[in-house]
Amino acid sequence: MKYVYAPLTKQQFPKTKDVVTAIALADLQDDVKRDTRPLHAVLERISEASSRVAGHLSVRRTAVSAMNYTVKSTTGNPEEAAAAKNRVKNVIDAIMKFHTDTVSIGAMLLELSWSDKIIGQDSIPTLKKHYTFTEIEKTDDNKVSIYQTANSAAKKLVERLTDKTFIVDTDDRSSRGGVLRSVMFNEIIISETLQEFFNTNSLLKGVVTGEINLQEILNSGVDVNKELAEINKSLDDTLENLGDKNYLKSPTGVKLAWNKIVDGTAGKSFIDLIDKLNTDTAIALLGQSGTSEIGSNGSRAALQVLNMIRADISFQDMKRVEAIINDLLLFDYQMNLNEIGTAQDIPYTFEFIIDENADIIAASQMFATLATINVKVNTNEFYAKLGLTVPASVVEPEITLSAAAQNNL
């Protein structure tokens, strides 16, 4: 049975006071009294209900899962490495799918099931269970606790690399709740602000009032006592149907007045606040905000810096996932090749294949520019930057780029 956080049963996001209570409960030092499930329930809701947050997490997930990878032999035995890759491929896919749990709440936990190893058949892992946000908590670096039941705070501690049935990952933050904790209040404020903006926007058109002039009605010669009820009903109908037509028809003796309640520029403050909060969320999750932080006159250099920061975050995600998958390969090695083997003994390793085409293009453009002023460069560096091997016929330690171009080096 899934854990249920009461404040989320009747509303999309909790009130601020409920979140403050949830944070205090998650930050308790006492392992027995601490309960991260209320906080994690809020973070889970934000990751699902906020399309912006969900999109940012999807970007980080895809940035890793879309990369090509290899399991490379370190002993000159590619067949052995290929066999290991085939054995663990399904679990590798699961790790890439769920690695953003660590980004979101500071921890990821996958439970594995290993097939029995028999003669002529390897032991192969499969994903038995992915633990959701409210089922686990980060106890410490490389340690995760599992809540035994939804209605109990009893926990089971799991430590990285101590049990082959668990893949454990944690972030290095001092507090629990991952990156989503830092943007949690942003998303709650945005939700509340949008509701206020909706209410304010509905008042921008103002309010129409109707005033009955008895003297004018008397002057028209009608029986006031007889007509007054009909005039009131006609006025009610006019005001109730206001906006359905592009004209107004008012009863005799009635004056309609349009009263402005909210200034037309009142909504701008709401939009500015939401933009600011969205920018902060984008920076926290992706390392950049797109264009709003830079402004309409932002420089190309500023955009390039933001893209570099974003690429750096993706690179950090990749290195973290590489480490987790190499944990998996250690388990595979121990299950199939060497029961007492260590990480130093593994004859293969997982690596992402990073496309260096863009670097080669940039290097080519740089060398073409330098060639116009006859600059000398180190021969080995020149060919390495272009992804090439130095030909045996080239023996000079330095070359002049213009000469290199002429001689088609």
Question: What would you note in describing this structure?
Answer:
The protein has 409 residues and is an alpha+beta fold. Among the domains are: 6-180, no CATH class; 207-259, no CATH class; 357-406, no CATH class. Helices cover 48% and strands 15% of the residues. The protein has helices at 16-26, 37-49, 51-65, 78-98, 100-105, 178-202, 214-219, 224-240, 268-286, 300-336, 357-371, 379-385, 401-406, and strands at residues 69-73, 107-114, 125-130, 136-140, 143-147, 155-159, 166-170, 207-212, 254-259, 348-352, 376-378, 398-400. The strands form five sheets. It has a three-stranded antiparallel beta sheet. A hairpin with a 7-residue loop joins strand 5 (143-147) and strand 6. The model is unreliable at 290-294 and 403-409 (pLDDT under 50).
Strand content: 15-25%
Rg for CA atoms? 33 Å
Shape: flat
Whole-Å distance between the termini?
68 Å
Q: How many strands, what sense, and barrel or not for the largest sheet? A: 3 strands, antiparallel
The low-pLDDT segments are 290-294, 403-409
Structural class: alpha+beta
Count the DSSP helices.
13
N-to-C series of helices and strands: HHHEHHEEEEEEHEHHEHHEHEHEH
**Mean model confidence by pLDDT:** 81
Q: How many β-strand runs?
A: 12
Q: In which range does the helix fraction lie?
A: 40-55%
Q: What key attributes describe this structure?
A:
409 residues; three-stranded antiparallel sheet; 48% helix
List the helices and strands and how they pair.
Layout: H1 16-26, H2 37-49, H3 51-65, E1 69-73, H4 78-98, H5 100-105, E2 107-114, E3 125-130, E4 136-140, E5 143-147, E6 155-159, E7 166-170, H6 178-202, E8 207-212, H7 214-219, H8 224-240, E9 254-259, H9 268-286, H10 300-336, E10 348-352, H11 357-371, E11 376-378, H12 379-385, E12 398-400, H13 401-406
Antiparallel strand pairs: 1-10, 2-3, 2-7, 4-5, 5-6, 8-9, 11-12
Helix pairs in contact: 1-2, 2-3, 2-6, 3-4, 3-9, 4-10, 6-9
